[in-house]
Amino acid sequence: MLISKVSDQIKKSKYISRDLSWLRFNYRVLDQARDAGKSLFDRLKFLAITSSNLDEFFMIRVGSLYNYLDYGKERTDYSGLRELPFRKKLLDYAHRFVNDQYLTFNNELKPLFAKNGFDILKVNELTEIEQKKVDSYFKNTLYPLLTPMVFDNYHGFPLLMNQLLTFGVVTRVTDEGKPQDRVTFVQIPQNLARFYEINRKDKIIFVAIEEIVRWKIKKLFRNVEIVSVNLFRITRNGDFTLEESDDLEADFVQEIKAKLKTRKKGRVVRLEVERNPSQFMMKILKERWVIDNANVFTINSQLDLRGLWQIVNHRQFKDRGFRQPASVLPVSLPSDGVDMFEYLKEHDVLLHHPYNSMEPVVNLLERAAEDPSVLGIKQTIYRLADQSRVTAALLKAAENGKHVSVLFEVKARFDEERNIKEGERLEKAGCFVIYGISKYKTHTKMMMIIRKEGEKVTRYVHIGSGNYNEQTARLYSDVSLLTTNEIYAHDVSEFFNVITGHSRPNEYKYLITSPKGMRSHLIELIRHEARNAKKGLKSGIVIKINSLEDKEVIDELYKASRAGAPVKLIVRGICCLRPGREDLSENITVKSIVGEYLEHSRLYYFHNNGDPKVYSGSADMMVRSFDRRIEALFLITNAELKREAINILYYNLLDNQNSYSMREDGTYVRRRAGANEELVDIHKLFFNKAYATEELDLV
Asked: Of 386, 390, 317, which is closest to residue 44 (Cα–Cα)?
């Protein structure tokens, strides 16, 4: 009866739960792992991604829920459920997902290992010679790194690290004639490869290092009776939202450094454990971490599927997975040999990654670092590549005496330490570095190069939706603009003054920014389409984003739908809007695109009675984007570039190979091409530049 009541309450809500929507997104990623049309290595890749996604979900979203539960704060989910019933619903759904995840691994993927040239085996499945190799690896490498940590009346409970595989070894000793059990913890080293590799003639054998430790566990417990050996893994709360607004005058970098340490001892929100664990150990862990069976995930296979990356990236299989075509030149750039400083004086360039390389941006920055005419560089940085060419160019520019201002966002989740380290390197080189703005997260992506050209100073601007990261630019779909247009340059200059100082400009001509004004500006654009629809004028809204969660914007889209304006949404991940509900959202469709490239670009199209307004930039339609982040959307004014952006949206809507349609109840169904329908795969089509020159109508 209670389950039925909860389900009815969820169905009645005009909003979809953000967290349940996210879990449905991870199901779409899991669907890629189930796709028999992909190579085994690509399927394993997507399965590993679902595991990484779920780790972050528990650290951040479930962690956030526990902030409310543990601090006694009230919370009502978009579904209408309060904290405790929502916790049950969410964790029940997570259990279902994990079950499906491992059914995919065990039943669909493992049977394909041998015919693809490898296998994952236990030690007892190896030959005698192979076991000798494993024994040697244990003695020389693993054994010296293992540290048993006992918990008993004389030893406190050890600090167990977040997301490390751990053995809980229950031993029995006799004290004064009475047998007593105690538990000792052994954590698997995190700085070793997950699998020990053995080359056979016909295949590669992978042996998980935790299985090697299990095989030799008695070496750590000499002359002691071992009752049971239990492998488990914990996930701790990694959400800091309750603390981020404390003491705004404190040294913010030191504050972030301190918070990073709390990830190691945050409250446990998930316990993954292999089958049939010791009940003695489980009782201790549950009591210690204040968790119950809802937090416990029993795994019928290999714990932590992220380890599959070692197989996916193995040099012997590098040609067995997805092969990305070579990038093509942007439509608005005639050749890769042009002098960008000269070309951009007369032309704007729209870049569509990964179909267009990030090289024009990085090359421009590297040239600017060496060019004696360049006076200064200003840039925001959110996530960087390993061995970043962007950082190297900024260091070179500073060494060459140029003014370099960099805003490093140290709250970029899980990249905090790297950004602090890189920022400190730039500071030492003489750059002016700002480590974020403590009340807000700087998520906008922009760069400006100031160059003296005769008596004139030209500002070269780059602004977009993606990070200055050469690695992810090959995997993430993003849109960005290179320009010397004075209006963009003025707006971006003003915006840099806002985020590095205390300037408060009255308005921008081509930018919409947050936390001031973005929500209200977008709402006005939506209302304008609704008014046109009511007047009988042609209207329409097409929006491509990562996430849609803000209730105020959702309500305005509902109103536009009721007014008769067609609303087409392409939302990769979280979508809290219900499409197709009678008398609410009948004119709204929602689709999600999940495939080889991560759809990261944001594009906003408003028909405007035949004179479309098209924006791109860093912001999704989320509360955090509007209220707690520094974001920017830029208006695309050049007619050719606007047409290209419109065409990107057009083919996103047409895609029938990577797409899922959202139903009114919040579930998704795979979009399949009809019998007489042309196949449209945007992850292939956009490598053909012809798409950008067509005259297409979105509504």
From this structure: 317
Known binding-site positions for ATP = 53, 476, 572, 600
Annotated binding site: 53, 383, 413, 476, 572, 600
Domain 120-239+249-305 grouped into CATH 3.20.20.370: no
Question: Who contacts 188 (Cβ-Cβ below 8 Å, separation ≥6)?
Answer: 164, 165, 166, 167, 209, 210, 213
pTM above 0.70, yes or no: yes
Mean pLDDT per 10-residue interval, the chain, length 699 residues: 66 92 97 96 98 95 90 88 93 97 97 96 96 97 95 88 96 82 94 95 95 96 92 88 40 60 80 96 96 96 96 92 92 90 96 96 96 96 85 93 86 67 81 77 92 95 94 95 97 88 78 93 98 97 98 98 98 97 97 96 97 97 92 96 96 96 96 89 92 82
* Both structure tokens of 316: 């012997």
- Residues recognised as catalytic: 443
The b/e string for 357-387 (b: 16+ C-beta within 10 A; e otherwise) is bbbbbbebbbebbebeebebbbbbbbbbbee
CATH of domain 512-686: 3.30.870.10
Single-letter amino acid code for the residue at 289: W
CATH topology of domain 340-505: Endonuclease; Chain A (3.30.870)
